[in-house]
Amino acid sequence: MALDSHIEKVLWTAGEISDRVAELAAEITSDCSPNSPAPALVGVATGAFVFLADLVRQIKLPISVDFIRADSYGAGTESTGAPRLSLDLKLDVTGKHVILCPDYFVVGYGMDFAEAYRNLPYVGVLKPEFYS
């Protein structure tokens, strides 16, 4: 894959991610009672969608899923310091456990830099020449 040459180092391999997602799903399943309201899993921005999809398939409870999007980068790579909510929840989460799945600033496994690298099966750090 040509994108691999852009990666300085791999933080977590596809196998490590898969193992940890399974552990998290088991923890969520055991922590939430089947008799309480279904937990709501909320993906933050588009970078959470791959992780969230893998996670929800392994949770052994009824759940609901929604997304929010907060943007403080605009078209640049540095935060303006003033986040703007551009997509709000459609779900009513009143009385529910809410589990946020954030979008951190690394690449791969759904997370991007300038809308690229989401398709990497691992999480990696870009080489400086690809973001400077």
TrEMBL record:
Q: What is the lineage of its organism?
A: Eukaryota, Viridiplantae, Streptophyta, Embryophyta, Tracheophyta
User: What's one Pfam family the UniProt record gives for this protein?
Assistant: Pribosyltran
Q: Which domain of life is it from?
A: Eukaryota
| Name the UniProt record assigns to this protein | Phosphoribosyltransferase domain-containing protein
Domain Phosphoribosyltransferase, first and last residues per copy: 16-103
Gene3D superfamilies hit by this protein: 3.40.50.2020
Mind listing the GO molecular function terms for this protein? hypoxanthine phosphoribosyltransferase activity; magnesium ion binding
A single Gene Ontology biological process assigned to it is: hypoxanthine metabolic process
InterPro entries reported in the protein's UniProt record? HGPRT, PRTase-like, PRTase_dom
